[in-house]
Design goal:
Length: about 475
């Protein structure tokens, strides 16, 4: 029969000052005691910290699933439509939301604006800052243009003191910036360690569920782009949001990495201004308004992010290389994807890219992760190689295979409809996407099967004697 592990611990206590020591000594080593009496061996029972669960601190009853109410979670909508989109419609009472991002991306600014939104509705907000003083946050609020009425500040990192204020003030919204600065004396490690972050996240989650109060927490990012701290923190919270930005880019993209109350594919687009993060309700229109006429090496790519389609401009610059191994630079697209596209275009479509330096960029600092941008990216390379601009009213989408075949992508109708709303007149897409596609009035649709067909259809140059024909509609 297996023995139960004895969790009692043995310590050595001074009979005079009751100081504990892990090993026996013939005198008390504590400063200020000076007792020459030997320490006394004592066996202590383990401290009770409550139930080691995430949520309940007491035993729960068994409940049949059919007897549980299926009503949707109530939501408190915010004035920011972009933030509502990522959250799934608004703030859910009792939820814990983790906001992660690189230093300087705007996490504290977004949290302070969130506090302002709630305070303007008459709600009581408690902002716990472990990184900045209240004076620094006041300077930020003055810059954002609000005095901070209804927002109470607490500069504290001790979890015990923080929860005492939570229980006494009973805020309608709690904000903690950041979780890596919190600590509890029950953990021997320092703030920011795995144990401290895990304990802080667990206590915040319990308090939020027990008090039915939403809690927003900011988190640091590591050098490799992952959230600092234990992975279990992301499992505990209800929503994980990532605020992203590219260097020298004014736009900020808010993505949901996890959302128990909505879709994880939604994104919100913000513009960093002097008054904070402003919603960009129509990112496609804002980006296209800055597009130069007759640009060489630029193509439009409709990408789908959640429930919206975005028209992004992908740019490519090719130049004869003076190096034994030509350079490949990718901004906003996957580097390995760029290598594959360049190899396929050079080998299968006749583009002379083997001796060219290739620099690829996505305008506005956005990042594209879906394969639908393969075709416009290669068309931008072709435009740069042949030094001729593409039709400014043309857009393209499609996945490129290793045999230079153009594969179908999902949600073709949504991409075409968004482009037609912005006034684009020509579309190059996989021929297999034409089935069931409703072509907007005045738009010309070109269905292609191979990359060579696509290049011949949009690039004005000396064609081959017998180019492959593409299927045109409209």
């Amino acid at each position: 029969m297996a023995k139960v592990k004895d969790r009692r611990r043995t310590v050595f206590i001074c009979p005079s000052c009751r100081n504990e020591n892990p090993k026996w000594m013939g005198f008390c080593p504590a400063l200020g005691c000076g007792s020459q009496s030997p320490l006394v061996e004592t066996s202590l029972a383990p401290e009770t910290k409550g139930r080691p669960g995430w949520l309940a601190t007491e035993a729960a009853d068994v409940v049949e699933l059919s007897s549980i109410s299926g009503d949707t979670q109530p939501r408190d909508p915010l004035p920011s439509m972009e933030l509502n989109r990522v959250l799934g419609g608004g703030v859910v009472p009792g939820s814990v939301v983790l906001l992660a991002g690189e230093p300087g991306v705007g996490k504290s600014t977004l949290l302070l604006q969130l506090a302002q939104y709630s305070a303007d509705k008459g709600q009581k907000v408690l902002y716990v800052s472990g990184e900045e003083s209240p004076q620094q946050i006041k300077l930020r609020s003055d810059r954002l243009g609000f005095a901070g009425d209804g927002i109470m500040m607490l500069a504290e990192t001790d979890l015990t003191a923080i929860f005492e204020k939570f229980d006494s003030i009973r805020p309608d919204l709690a904000i903690v910036d950041s979780i890596q600065t919190l600590y509890t004396e029950e953990e021997s490690s320092g703030p920011g360690s795995v144990g401290q972050v895990r304990e802080a996240g667990m206590r915040l989650l319990r308090w939020a569920k027990a008090s039915d109060t939403p809690v927003f927490v900011s988190g640091h990012m590591t050098k490799d782009g992952t959230l600092a701290g234990p992975r279990v923190l992301e499992h505990m919270v209800d929503v994980v949001m990532y605020l992203e930005s590219q260097e020298d880019g004014g736009y900020r993209v808010l993505r949901a990495g996890k959302n128990r109350f909505g879709a994880t594919t939604e994104v919100g687009v913000f513009d960093m201004t002097e008054k904070g993060l402003a919603d960009v309700s129509d990112p496609s229109k804002a980006l296209l308004s800055q597009r130069a006429e007759g640009s060489i090496g630029a193509a439009l790519a409709p990408v789908v992010e959640g429930s919206r389609a975005l028209l992004l401009e992908v740019q490519a610059l090719t130049s004869p290389s003076q190096l034994p191994a030509p350079r490949r630079v990718a901004n906003g697209v996957d580097y390995n994807r760029l290598l594959m596209l360049a190899a396929v275009a050079s080998r299968r479509a006749g583009l002379e890219l083997s001796g060219q330096d290739i620099i690829v960029n996505v305008a506005g600092g956005f990042k594209i992760g879906e394969p639908a941008a393969d075709l416009p990216l290669v068309l931008a390379m072709a435009s740069s190689v042949y030094n001729c601009p593409l039709d400014p009213t043309m857009f393209a989408f499609g996945e490129l295979g290793l045999s230079a075949e153009i594969r179908a992508v999902s949600q073709a109708q949504r991409r075409v409809t968004e482009a037609a709303r912005l006034g684009l007149k020509k579309c190059v897409l996989p021929e297999s996407c034409l089935d069931g596609l409703t072509v907007p009035e005045g738009m010309k649709v070109v269905g292609v099967k191979t990359l060579r067909q696509a290049v011949n259809a949009v690039v004005v140059r000396d064609r081959d004697p017998a180019p492959e024909a593409a299927l045109e509609l409209g």
